[in-house]
Amino acid sequence: MQRRLLLSHYNGIALDREIMSHNIKKKTINSVTKLEKNLGNKLNLEEITTFKTKIPKRFIELANAIHLDDPLMKQVLPDARELFGGDDLDPVNEHGLVNQGLIKKYNGRALLIVTEACPMHCRYCFRREFPYKGNQMSTDNLNGAIRAINADKSLIEIILSGGDPLSLSDDRLDDLITRINALHHIQTLRIHSRYPIADPQRVNSSLLAALKKFTRKTVFVFHINHPNEIDGEFIDAAVKLKNNEIRLLNQSVLLKGVNDNPNTLKELSLMLFDIGITPYYLHLLDEVKGASHFKIETEEAVKIHERLKELVSGYLVPKLVKEIAGESSKVTIS
User: Fold this and answer.
1) Which pairs with CB-CB distance under 8 Å and at least 24 residues apart come from 141-145?
2) Which domain CATH number covers 226?
3) Phi, psi of 330, rounded to the nearest 5 degrees
4) Quick count: other Cβ atoms within 10 Å of Cβ 305?
5) Maximum distance among all Cα pairs of the chain, rounded to whole angstroms
6) Which domain holds residue 117?
7) Tens of pLDDT along 64-114?
């Protein structure tokens, strides 16, 4: 859908729809067999049992799903190449740092793994091998994480991640955010999520009420890789967040066969900016086992990024970055 049509849709939609998707399972396909039945088409795909298929039906509707080369379907369809090449289960060195779901890797901020659940399984996910067992948000783990955050006054930002933090119920999010808000040295709450793409109706009044429990700065980071992921329903959800004084950012992963084209990235940046979302990061692939077929070599990534700079204004160009284990921050690629 073109930007003009999307904005026309946005201008006419009712922003007060409050239809909650309580059961994402009803909207999700969780096996190759069910996907083939849904499409009425034999795909000749193998199920990858170590990282199961999970695709929102809505994502299929956004894609041209009968073509396996569709840039959206490539992100979520299991691929036999996942079984070969690469053996790094922890490319960003998180497994040894996590304690009761809390990861303190960079100065001034900490990341809280609140759930392993996601509305979709992206095949390039760098946490596909993460040791979620023992790091779930149990009562003991949450209490321990809150104590650790309270004890470290150097922390000013808490990042909710997973899995997808919006997989939690609104009541659990409300409780979690209320407890973080009580830690007055925490000035920023950041939330990373694919949920508004997978199920925009997740952004409802009770979720917004929970997010308001943090009374300082709240940042919401979308993970959108391709302009075809954006439609009027997503715009509705994003505008609701923006209208609640939440700062909106997007980070993408540069993926072979998905968005490794400067014109695709240009269209994505323009669409995001029209909605009020800042293109923030363009990540090189975290080379987790099973995802090497998505890799773009650094030299090629730089060429794509340089061409993007020629196509759009500077404020529309996300930083090209790579996460390198042991570094004190994301490394900017130039």
Assistant:
1) 141/100, 141/101, 142/100, 142/101, 142/176, 142/179, 144/99, 144/100, 144/102, 145/100, 145/101, 145/102, 145/112
2) 3.20.20.70
3) -60, 145
4) 19
5) 56
6) 3-332
7) 766 778 999 999 998 888 887 666 665 555 555 567 788 888 899 999 989
Exposure of 46 in the CB half-sphere (CA atoms within 13 A): 9
Mean pLDDT of 310-327: 92
132: left (phi over 0), alpha (psi -120 to 50) or beta: alpha
43-to-37, 65, 225 alpha-carbon distances in Å: 10, 10, 24
Total structural domains in the chain? 1
Amino acid symbol at 210? A
Q: Which amino acid does the sequence have at 291? A: A
List, for residues 150-185, the tens digit of each pLDDT value. Answer: 999 999 999 998 889 999 999 999 999 999 999 999
The answer to whether the predicted template modeling score (pTM) of the entire model surpasses 0.85 is yes
Backbone angles phi, psi at 136, to 5 degrees: -75, 165
